[in-house]
Amino acid sequence: MRIDSSRPHGTETGQRGQRGPGKPDGLSGPDGPGEADGPSGPGEADWPVAATIARSVAATGPATGARTTTGEIVAWLAERRRAHGTRIRRIPFAELDGWSFQEDTGNLVHRSGRFFTVEGMRVHDADRPGAPWEQPVMRQPEVGVLGLLAKEFDGVLHFLVQAKMEPGNRGMLQLSPTVQATRSNYQRVHGGSGVRFLEFFTEPGRARPLTDTLQSEHGEWFLHKSNRNVVVETADEVAEDPAAEPDFRWLTLGQIGELLRLDNVVNMDTRTVLACLPTPGGQGPARHTDAEVSSWLGAARSRSRLTAEPVRLARVRGWLRDEQAVRRTDDRHFRVVAVAVEADGREVGSWTQPLFEPCGPGVSAFLFRHFDGVPHLLAHARAEAGLPQTVEVGPTVCSTPDGHGRPPAYADVVRAADGARVRYAAVHSEEGGRFLYAESRCLFVSVDGVDDSDLLTPPPDHLWITPGQLGALTGRGHQVTVQARTLLAVLNSGAVRLS
440 with 432: CB under 8 angstroms? Predict the structure, then answer.
């Protein structure tokens, strides 16, 4: 057939993990930039919690304050993967339980009316000639909770992570936040068990917030999707006994950073939460003031003429639906498929659901160089039709299998980078609860010493900013793409150092 609330983001001064009195707010406030900062830009390690974060980054084993070794964590993940015994198989749409295509719209919906729907999206770009493009898109109006619980052990901050299976992950089981749940999940619409440790993130006063913002997800596959990204600290004795909580472990930031050097170990939701922590390093003058960075992003948003509107899935042009998939007529970009899952250790032991399956891997890369000894990242004001504000700050290069138009600027620089210039490279899965085997190669590539005018004076939609400025933008919420937040998490955890 043819197929034509969360807490407010921002901070309160005086709390641990927030800016104290007398600190310049810069980009950290929700209403816009402050005055240009001095030697230390906003978002850099000048928060009261920054020294605690730095100790956590430095702790990679028992000798430096961690409770276990990273090797033991890798072995634990392998043991939990065996213990969960997850099985996943592709099924035709007719075998979906609780999901169906609506007769009038063709949209793929759950009988509860909750979770998410697969609909159509029509995208107009007034700067691009030709007809608008159309595609399936996920709509999930619920704001989920992505939360890390933090606690100090012997003066070193640890984070409670979970060995959790998602059907679309490579290797199934990856390192997840303490809590990773949509509102439908934690309200138990699926009829399963409750979400462990949820009370630390939903009961006022139960734990002290270190960071709490709303962040977007993939704007090419979701329409206006947001999640609450939150880190809270507790002094309670929780999950102290591995035998009582076999799927949970306390790790330092440094240990998570070591795991981020491995392929497909730390899942996307953990990465985006880590990106919201204070960003270390980069002391010294920025090439652009905070006001200039904010103005650059605002100007890019005002220039964008990319708009999206929902349409019936049954009327999306250029896509077909058969028994096994909703796919483009040329089999490019991505497809919508169905899977059946059996998994121990989840709130529900078995279920079926649709997933988006990209037709190839993506690339997310930051070019970086030093100006006056200070590392800077080449940021891109990236337009994605499904983002709440259309344009957010992305990596220098962000290439997805369902991208439209010309190859991104600087893709040739990333592709040609040799081993000496590639300071970080790893493959990471995207959100495995919605995407099947969606992966991106994530890189930091040095262009120090490259005297190229296109790099030194980039086009208007690119700008050299410090890691601290990127971190400050992240702290405002809905300013930085999920792809850039993965790379920021790599920096925040010490998996790569640019200096």
Answer: no
Burial annotation 154-192 (CB, 10 A radius, 16+ → b, else e): eebbbbbbbbbbbbbbbebbbbbbbbbbbbbbbeeebee
Count of CB atoms situated within 10 Å of the CB of 30: 13
For the entire predicted model, the pTM comes to 0.88
Segment 102-145, tens digit of pLDDT: 999 999 999 999 889 999 999 999 887 777 999 999 999 889 99
Q: How many CA atoms lie within 13 A of 302 on its CB side?
A: 7
Q: Identify the burial level of 142 via C-beta atoms within 10 angstroms of its C-beta, where 0-12 means exposed, 13-18 middle and 19 or more buried.
A: middle
Percent helix / strand / coil, the chain, rounded to 5:
20, 30, 50
How far is Cα 326 from Cα 310, in angstroms, rounded to an integer? 17
- The residue-averaged pLDDT of 188-199 equals 70
User: What DSSP designation does 423 have?
Assistant: E
Alpha-carbon distance of 377 to 496, in angstroms, equals 13
Cα 122 from Cα 128, distance rounded (Å): 14
Instruction: List the structure tokens of 221.
Output: 């596959």
Q: What is the pLDDT of residues 323-345, one digit of tens each?
A: 999 999 999 999 999 999 987 76
Identity (one letter) of the amino acid at 152? E
CB 395 within 8 A of CB 487: yes
56 backbone φψ class: left, alpha, beta (φ>0; ψ -120 to 50): alpha
> Quick one: 391 exposed, middle or buried, by C-beta within 10 A (0-12, 13-18, 19+)?
buried
- Enumerate residues 6+ apart whose C-beta is below 8 A from 51: 45
User: What single-letter amino acid sits at 448?
Assistant: D
Distance CA 390, CA 127 (A): 14
Q: Which residue has the tokens 């002094």?
A: 235
Which 3 state secondary structure label does DSSP give 444? Answer: strand
Tokens of 347: 């709130």
* Neighbour-count burial for 455-467, b at 16+ CB within 10 Å, e otherwise: beebeebbbbbbb
Other beta carbons within 10 Å of 318? 15
* Cα gap 117→356, rounded to integer Å: 12
* H-only helix segments in 59-174: 70-84
High-pLDDT (> 90) share of the chain, %? 74
For residues 232 and 151, what is the distance between their CA atoms, to the nearest angstrom? 9
Least Cα distance to 99 among 225, 170, 196, 190 occurs for 190
